[in-house]
Amino acid sequence: MNKTIVLNLILALLAGCAGAMDSLDSDEALLAAAGFRAVYPRTADHIDQLYSLPPGHLLADNAGDHINYLYADPAHCGCYYQGDDAAHECLKKLLAEKGRADAQLQASMWQLDQSMNYGTMYGGMYGGMYGGGWGPW
User: How many domains does the chain have?
Assistant: First the structure.
């Protein structure tokens, strides 16, 4: 099989993996996928409460016999996300899976870079300590 065809196939597979994870790149998408629901404040008091919460942080709110988890997002959606213990556990699993997928993608990209000799030591397409690069400069 031609080396160019193999390279194009690898790049297409890597792009597909990256595209699948793009849908879960934002905090809001992860929260929604985990089962958190968006709550939009309707009164002035609730709006004040939303803006009093630290944005972008998951907070645990003890509500008697159970715990509510809150994530304030006043800048993006003007809402907060609320979830229970099951949603919190699911969020932890999604974050762990996303971390593993991100690490695998980074390792694959590094291996591809090494196989194409684009490193700076031997020149590659950007030049380097032994010359190389594109053009007569």
Answer: 1
Widest Cα–Cα separation across the chain: 73
Q: Is residue 133 situated within a structural domain?
A: no
Structural domain containing residue 72: 24-105
Residues 6+ apart with CB under 8 A from 70: 53, 58, 59, 61, 80, 81, 82
Q: Per residue of the chain (137 residues), give pLDDT as tens.
A: 555 554 444 555 444 434 434 444 588 889 999 999 999 999 999 899 889 989 988 888 887 888 889 999 988 889 999 999 999 999 999 988 888 888 888 887 777 777 665 555 555 555 555 555 555 55
pTM over 0.90: no
